[in-house]
Design goal:
The complex is a heterotrimer of chains A (290), B (317) and C (310). Chain A has 290 residues and is an all-alpha fold. Chain A contains 11 helices and no strands. Chain A is elongated and about 75 Å long. In chain B, helix 8 links the parallel strand 7 and strand 8. Classes of the chains: A mainly alpha (290), B alpha/beta (317), C mainly alpha (310).
Chain lengths: 290, 317, 310
């Protein structure tokens, strides 16, 4: 009982230290801002947006940015600003769920592969290698061919493409942890395999898994936006950032705002998340800083 | 000759006075041992001679007179020419001190070709000669091997070869045997003795192991918490140690000849170098300390010819 | 150098089952799609049952799956990669007229990443915390975070629509290469720069760098010979993976710039459910990628002698 409190206390101290270091890094503060601001924008879209994102105002098409329409309107008279705000929901959803899919399957596969070793390990790793032989977008396109277009399928596709990263990470961690004394002790006291895996090994990998997750979410958002750009994702009139960029291509010469603002949002979101990820990594491993 | 050398590290937590006004002399063909606990500043002293102090450290005071010139006044380019050529250094962990992606022979050859106008193949010949001298069998084949193919002892021999290929006047050896097996340790020390006779260099041998230097050193300096506390010939240190720390050190070494009830232990801990104790740095742990010891800093006094001690009460104890 | 030949052989042997696995995956696309594969070929054109049966036999759809796979595999090896459903042209023909264009982009991308990224990273590391360091790392971060397609669109807006300096599509003149190459190279350069910098910082802290300085070597040699050769190892390891991302990137860029490569071919095929072309493109991409990975691994073994014995 006292051990538990001590351990928790130790963790709290560690967390406080990490938090302190994170705060010092101004760049990662921006990332933190994005990290907080984005979900707020996504959740409170109806309150932040000025108009209904799919409502068309056919007498006000292709208007440049103004007070009424901060980001202008597109060729259907829809408010770009509102569409961008609502688009954050989709992009965030896709990023998070795709990484969740990758995490669940990847961690499971990594645990099994690293712990049991042998032929099972080789088989799983070969499968991962096969997946990794495809450039990510080719893999996603194949999956979209099978499943069809749409946001959910994009999530699945990007998720599947990210599984190998997680499985490799977890596997290498498991290989190291497996040899540690406390695992051997747990087994010696009769812990079942499932129990050993989940209660002893997994918690020790958790830190790396979370770091990898934060690092892969921005990539997932970018990939999903790219797939949306080539028309594989959400279909109109759903306001998806990638798709919006693509829609605006016909109007580059007379309505630059249609493509620019959605892309800008993607850019800012990804930069923010990357900064946060970098900051987190630096805070947890101070050796790499100055 | 090192005079009043001070090297500090300017860290976020404070100024670490790693080396504080240390002075000692090394004469030609002499072996001087520098002994002290971990963290007492001996390695830093060694690195200061070659001006290899890493950031955030800086040499803040003193002179290092080598062959009539003050090394601390030289430009970086002049210093570069001295390193490896007139003063060489070998380090504690040979495994990490050799570059893993280059052949060993090539790394040694580099040491000579960058200082003397000699072409690569002639340099290689000298390298192989030297490798044989340091006791690496089948030198011409071994020279083409990579560091990870060498054993620990062999790696250190290779490092010695690299340091001696330009026949330096001074070899600084920073804990050269601490990472090696005990049997290999003796071999390496023997090797260093032999090579010293052969090439005629002086050696500054740094270690935390007092017993190690007795065999090879002519003079020994004892360091504590960034300061040099005693400096004398090897015999003098052993037979007539005058500083309380030196005495304590000697009594903590088990000896074959003398049987004791308990090995001497020095109470207390090594002090922090950011906030060292006032006055004599050893006084909190010294059994002879008085109030004065805590107030006034002792200076090195010559109690006998060639025997210097830094203690306020040296004449009384 | 004995060790390296054994390593090459081992790597090649490893690549074969992976390649086979890839073909299995690609082959199974046809059968994983919901619905009858024949529907896609026919596209709703009415046919008599006899014709249906004939087509089934011709395509071998009535045979057990593993036999179908072997037919597919032997077809691949013989050079029969099928026919485009959309254009009725042989898949290999479609591919062969285009793959060079994609390769050009990918190679340009990698070349730019390495030629600009590595020096940037090295200098940033050597001058740590200087203005150069901050600026180049911010630039690198931008490169990694910018959506490629958006960057391309912005470039087009500025240089094609706005200034009329560069063409927005096609690949006939050298000018056509500039914007696509910039776009492809951007992400890669950022990544390589960041990786090189952190790797270099790590290496410069190592003992053997201190030894090199203690030997009295010139600082330039210490950094560019001793440090760099070690620091570059993780970068080279990643080049293979980088190339994979780059290949993926070319697909998008080919769409933006209407570049006639296999990426564009693939996307159009996906829109049109042109299965044979999809399969052919996927296979081409994978083949290229596996070959490059192999080359990179061998280069890595050459640079880092320790790996040859694993």
């Amino acid at each position: 009982m006292f051990k538990r409190i001590e351990k928790a206390h130790g963790h709290v101290d560690e967390l406080a230290e990490v938090w302190r270091r994170l705060k010092k890094n101004k760049a990662s503060l921006f990332g933190l801002l994005v990290f907080i601001f984005m979900p707020i924008m996504a959740i409170f879209s109806p309150y932040i947006a000025l108009h209904d994102p799919i409502e068309m105002h056919l007498d006000e098409t292709l208007l440049p940015p103004s007070w009424k329409y901060p980001f202008g309107t597109d060729d259907f008279g829809r408010c770009i600003f509102s569409r961008v705000v609502f688009g954050s929901r989709l992009s965030l959803e896709v990023g998070i769920i795709a990484v969740l899919i990758a995490m669940i399957f990847g961690v499971l596969l990594g645990l099994i592969s690293g712990y049991f070793g042998g032929k099972l390990d080789t088989l799983i790793m070969r499968c991962m290698d096969i997946l990794l032989s495809f450039p990510w977008i080719v893999l996603c396109l194949l999956i979209v061919t099978i499943l069809g277009t749409g946001l959910v399928n994009v999530m699945i596709a990007v998720g599947i493409g990210t599984i190998p990263e997680f499985s490799r990470l977890v596997r290498s961690e498991v290989l190291i942890i497996k040899e540690k004394q406390y695992i051997k002790a747990a087994i010696a006291t009769g812990a079942s395999e499932k129990r050993t895996l989940f209660r002893h090994i997994l918690p020790n990998c958790l830190a790396s898994i979370i770091i990898l997750a934060t690092l892969t979410i921005p990539g997932a958002i970018l990939s999903a936006a790219a797939l949306g750009f080539i028309g594989m994702g959400a279909q109109p009139p759903t306001p998806e950032w990638g798709r919006m960029c693509s829609d605006g291509r016909a109007f580059l010469h007379n309505a630059w705002w249609i493509s620019t603002f959605p892309g800008l949002m993607i850019f800012l979101t990804v930069i923010g998340l990357n900064l946060l990820g970098d900051g987190l990594r630096d805070a947890l491993d101070p050796r790499l800083r100055a | 000759m090192i005079k009043d050398l001070s090297t500090y590290f300017f860290t976020r937590e404070g100024i670490v006075k790693a080396v504080d006004k240390v002075s000692l002399n090394i004469n030609r063909e002499e072996v001087v041992g520098l002994v002290g606990e971990s963290g007492c500043g001996k390695s830093t002293t060694a690195l200061s001679i070659l001006r290899l102090i890493p950031h955030p450290g800086r040499i803040v005071g003193g002179n290092i007179i080598f062959d009539g010139e003050d090394l601390l006044k030289k430009s970086e380019e002049e210093m570069r020419r001295v390193r490896g050529d007139r003063i060489s250094m070998i380090f504690q962990d040979p495994a990490s001190s050799l570059n893993p992606v280059f052949q060993v022979g090539e790394q040694i050859n580099e040491a000579i070709t960058s200082h003397i106008k000699i072409n690569k193949s002639d340099g290689m010949k000298k390298t192989i000669e030297l490798l044989e001298k340091v006791g690496i069998p089948d030198a011409s084949r071994r020279g083409k091997a990579y560091p990870h193919e060498f054993s620990g002892g062999m790696k250190q021999r290779a490092m010695i070869a690299m340091a001696l290929i330009c026949e330096p006047d001074l070899l600084v050896a920073d804990e050269p045997t601490s990472n090696l097996d005990v049997t290999i340790q003796a071999q390496i020390i023997e090797l260093m003795k032999r090579l010293k006779e052969d090439i005629g260099s002086s050696i500054l041998l740094i270690t935390h192991n007092l017993a190690l230097v007795t065999d090879i050193a002519n003079k020994i300096g004892i360091m504590y918490a960034g300061k040099l506390v005693e400096f004398a010939s090897t015999e003098a240190i052993y037979e007539k140690p005058r500083h309380p720390y030196t005495c304590a050190l000697l009594s903590s070494i088990p000896s074959v000849d003398v049987t004791v009830e308990r090995l001497g232990v020095i109470p207390g801990e090594v002090p922090s170098l950011i906030k060292p104790p006032t006055g004599c740095r050893f006084h909190p742990r010294c059994k002879y300390s008085t109030e004065l010891c805590g107030k006034e800093e002792p200076t090195m006094t010559e109690i006998e010819s060639g025997h210097l001690v830094s203690c306020l009460r040296v004449h009384e104890i | 150098m004995k060790g390296i030949y054994a390593y090459i052989v081992r790597r090649l042997l490893l690549a074969i089952p992976i390649l086979l696995g890839v073909t299995v995956l690609i082959f199974s696309i046809m059968h994983l799609i919901p619905g009858d594969p024949l529907d896609y070929v026919l596209r709703g054109r009415p046919v008599t049952p006899e014709t249906l049966q004939l087509m089934k036999e011709k395509l071998g759809l009535n045979l057990p799956l593993h036999v179908q796979y072997l037919r597919y595999l032997s077809g691949l090896l013989r050079g029969d990669w099928g026919e485009s459903i959309r254009t009725r042209v042989s898949v290999l023909t479609e591919l062969s007229s285009r793959y060079v264009n994609t390769l050009q982009l990918a190679v340009l991308g990698i070349a730019i990443s390495l030629l600009i990224g590595i020096p940037l990273g090295v200098i940033a590391a050597v001058k740590q915390n200087s203005v150069f360091d901050y600026l180049s790392m911010i630039g690198a971060l931008f490169g990694v975070s910018i959506p490629g397609f958006w960057f391309a669109i912005v470039l087009i807006m500025m240089f094609s629509v706005g200034l009329h300096w560069l063409p927005a599509s096609g690949n006939d003149s050298v000018l056509c290469y500039i914007m696509p190459a910039l776009t492809v190279g951007l992400g890669g350069t950022g990544f390589v720069a960041r990786l090189t910098r952190s790797s270099m910082l790590e290496v410069l802290r190592q003992d053997y760098v201190r030894t090199a300085r203690a030997k009295g070597l010139r600082e330039r040699i210490v950094v560019y010979k001793h440090a760099l050769k070690n620091a570059i190892i993780p970068v080279i390891t990643m080049v293979g993976i980088q190339f994979g991302y780059l290949l993926g990137g070319t697909v998008i860029i080919e769409m933006v710039f209407a570049w006639p490569g296999i990426g564009r071919l693939l996307v159009v095929a996906v829109w049109a459910h042109d299965i044979p072309v999809i399969q052919g493109c996927a296979l081409s991409f994978t083949l290229i990628f596996i070959l490059i990975s192999l080359t990179v691994d061998i280069a890595y073994a050459y640079l880092n002698p320790q790996i040859r014995y694993e």
